[in-house]
Every structure is written in structure tokens, then in C-alpha cells.
Amino acid sequence: MQTPSRELEAMVAAARAAGAGLRARQRELHALAVRSKSGPADLVSIADEEAEATVRAHLAAARPDYAFLGEEGGAEGNGERQWIVDPLDGTTNFLFGGPLWGVNVALAEAGRVIAGVTWLPALEELYVAEAGRGAWLNGRRLQVSPRATLVEAVLSCGIPFHGKPDHPLFAREMTRLTAVTAGMRRTGACSVDMAFVAAGRWDAYWERTLNSWDMAPGVILVQEAGGIATGADGGPLDLYGGHVCVSNGAIHAALLEQLRLAAQED
């Protein structure tokens, strides 16, 4: 791996520090104060807020002039470069004692992700990428999978939970895709799913009603591992547009066609 930039070093340090605090909090789940955001299935805890404060402090020390966007605290500053942070992606997994959750830290410039870190503390997997420098997992360079057809592919997706829209559309997508793929997966954490596409463990992933902090690091991880990132509608990716589809590239058109046909069946 090439020598990381100062920004990437700060991102890694921030993610690791937040992850350490989160692992300590997960060992005392019974004592955590938990509340809902938009509904009973959309949860947040003091652990999320502490983790964001940790990440923010590290990043501000490195580049105090950069803007900041965090899931818990919102936006601050208006510089062309912006930190985008999800301090605890997969909160429900975390609060139920599961291992599939992570810390997302990205750096965007004029709406394009130029560096990303996904740290999965329970799995001890650190994913990093910078534009033009490749994607890496624990120091090993990543490459998306070579599988070229849907029938041999394993796909992952985000399933809309209570309070989310598009349940009928998702059901139609599943009807189509389970019949033409090798398998469907759902981890409950966008950070995990997108990192797994970059690592070649999944062949593609899509989800709607996302935020930029859910997807930002995963976008550059997949791209730098040789994959493709677009909107779930097949259009150019809009980091703030609320939906994403990433893949190894070889199956991208075929997947988007199935998603398009499912949308037309309404």
C-alpha cells in the first residue's frame, strides 16, 4: 500500500478510536440509553453520539477548515471539501449484540468521494481507499469479483424496514432476482455490504432511501477495487440522491435491467 495522505491517516485514526469506544459500549448494552428517530425500528443510542464526537475531534484536529456532515450532528461549515461520517452504521445490529456494524468516514470534494474508510471493529477489518490509489483491506489490495452473469452471482441489498417506503417494489425485485441469481443476502449494514462488494465477497449491492454517510466510503472502495457505482435507477451516482447500486461491473447492466422491470410492474 502506498503512503497514505494526511487526510487518510486522520480518517483511520478517527475510525479506530470511535470503534474502540463502541466495542466498550457494546459490552454494556444493558446500560445504554436508546431512543427512536423516525419510528420504533429506527434506533439511536448514546454510543452513536459519542462515536461521532470522537471522529469529529480527530478530523477537526487534522483539517479544521474542512466542512463536516455527520449522521447525528448534521452539517457544519461550507468548504469545498467535506468530511462525511456515519459513526455507527448498522445500529440495530449493534444494539442487538451482533458483529455486523461499522464506522464510516469519507472525504468528498465537490460532491465526489476522494477517500474512504470503513472500519468493522468486531470483524477487525479495516477497508481504506483513496482516488487513484486502490482499495485495501488490512493492507491487502482488493479486487471485485470476476463473476460475469447474474445466475452465478450473490447479491446483497437493503430491505426497507418499518417506516421506510418502497416495500411493494422491493417484493417485486426479490421475486425477479431470487429466480435468476445464486443467492441474495442482507446484512443490515450498508458499510458491510459495500465493503464486501469491494472485497469480491458479494457481486453487487443496491439500496434506496439511503443517506450520503451510509454509502460514501463504500462508493470509493468499490470504484478503486475495479467496480462500478451508479444510482439504483441506473443514472449517474448522486452522493446525496438517496439511492445506490454498486457491482463488479460485469453484472451491472443485467442487474439494473431487472430493477427497471420490477419498477415498471407497478
UniProtKB/TrEMBL annotation:
EC assignment: 3.1.3.25
One MF term in the entry's GO annotations: inositol monophosphate 1-phosphatase activity
Reactions catalysed: a myo-inositol phosphate + H2O = myo-inositol + phosphate
Annotated keywords: Hydrolase, Magnesium, Metal-binding, Transcription, Transcription antitermination, Transcription regulation
UniProt cross-references to InterPro entries, sorted A to Z: IMPase, Inositol_monophosphatase-like, Inositol_monophosphatase_SuhB
Origin superkingdom: Bacteria
Binding site for Mg(2+): 71, 86, 88-89, 214
Cofactor: Mg(2+)
GO biological process, alphabetically ordered: inositol metabolic process; signal transduction; transcription antitermination
Top-level EC class: hydrolase
Family according to the record: Belongs to the inositol monophosphatase superfamily.
Full protein name: Inositol-1-monophosphatase
Originating organism: Arenimonas composti TR7-09 = DSM 18010
